[in-house]
Amino acid sequence: MLFLLWFKVKQPESLTQRHLMQIWQREAEAALPAVKQGKIKGLWKVSGKREVVAILDAESHEEIDQILENLPIVKEMGYAVEIEVHAIHPYESFYELVKKIAT
């Protein structure tokens, strides 16, 4: 199953930019191997914002929870990271459904 994940990182006042970037570096070091392995189908940084968008291939909703709770940025800044999760599927399969409904 494919999921769209939208991460919005809020920097607490008590956290310096350098410390935030160190946490984000650990996050990137955990995420990039998953991209190479194909678990993460796409990973993008939103320009000008502290936001990241990812397409993740997971076997279940429980696996999504497990993955998210083990991310370095969530472990270190969970209270300051908002994550939107949306189940998605290929537009081609939606088109097939539309054809059935339309006829």
From TrEMBL:
Domain Muconolactone isomerase: 1-91
Protein origin, superkingdom: Archaea
InterPro entries: Dimeric_a/b-barrel (IPR011008), MLI_dom (IPR026029)
Official protein name in the record: MIase like protein
